[in-house]
Amino acid sequence: MTSEITLFVNPTAGRGRGAHAALPAASALRAAGYSVRTIVGEDAEDALARARAAVAEGTGALVAVGGDGLVHLALQAVAGTDTPLGLVAAGTGNDFARALGLPLRDPAAAGRLIADALKGARIRDIDLGQAGGRWFGTVLASGFDSRVNDRGNRMRWPTGRAKYDLAMLAELAAFRPFPYRIRLDDGAVREVEATLVAVGNGSSYGGGMRICPGADLGDGLFDVTVVGDCGRAALLRVFPRVYRGTHVEHPKVTVHRAATVELAAPGIAGYTDGEPLGPLPLTARCVRGAVRIVGA
Questions:
Q1: Are residues 147 and 107 in the same domain?
Q2: Same domain, 78 and 164
Q3: Which residue from 71, 78, 94, 184 could staple onto 89, CB 3.0 to 4.6 Å apart?
Q4: Does any domain span residue 259?
């Protein structure tokens, strides 16, 4: 493996934490004997092109310094290749790093972990989801949660988990269940009125909301959480339980496991890793061992 490491940086992640996090992470890698170069794109398209070029040129690892949005871009560059991905979590949600048990908002510790893991060849193959031509690491969200995600991503204040709580309350004003058509591996079509359907490769989104608490990054299957036609009052009681993952015990919630999921619902968009994917219908498939993760 080459000793050159590429830092893929989002300088605006976590209200500027991304830029600050790059320095101690790079220092830790250099102290371990690695040559470090940094790439920062002018926009998402340019950043992805630069990351793909680094992978094509044979970088020893691509290290994403930022939040789930940047990790999502990084996955598009490394998925299906031999190039390992390191994570320096410096965003608002950091759900992918959380699912992997990696350091959160401690860039020096993350840099040391990556350096030690590369020297010890501690690299783990994990599954990814694929939908709409995009790879994703955490959750494909649709319905009430995608609308909350959309609103939360537009909010500048507060930060972290609190903004998704406020976005949820705002979306409740126009809340209604949505008619879904769901097809899983068994081929059966399920037509349901649902508040949301979440397809989890990882367990959480929105900064620790454990919407798919049983999701396993290495089993080749999604956990599909379907929240039925709750009224506003029931949703207010159920949704806060997402942080503990106990919402799945509610009678209006069902969980399925499948490698392929087809979702259709009029007027509903899908989000993956907190990023807009596009309107339903969408088909998601779980791809075993699609990416190599450093130190997880």
A1: no
A2: no
A3: 94
A4: yes
265 and 151 part of one domain? yes
Q: For 176-226, write each residue's pLDDT tens digit.
A: 899 999 999 999 999 999 999 999 999 999 889 999 999 999 999 999 999
Q: Any idea which residue has 């794109």 for tokens?
A: 41
Cα dist. 191→117, 181, 225, 263 in Å?
A: 46, 5, 15, 10
User: Hey, is 252 helix, strand or coil?
Assistant: coil
3-state secondary structure of 125: strand
Asked if the bond preceding 281 is cis, omega within 30° of 0, the reply is: yes
Residue 38 structural domain: 4-121
pLDDT tens, residue by residue, 142-154:
998 887 877 877 8
Q: What are phi and psi of 176, to 5 degrees?
A: -160, 150
Identify whether residues 281 and 194 lie together within a single domain.
yes
- Report for 12-16, 23-27, 162-166, 167-171: range of highest mean pLDDT: 23-27
pTM of the model: 0.91
CATH number at residue 75: 3.40.50.10330
Q: At CA 19, angle to CA 67 and CA 292, rounded to 5?
A: 45
Say whether both 116 and 140 belong to one domain: no
Which positions ≥6 away from 148 have C-beta within 8 Å? 164, 167, 168, 171, 206
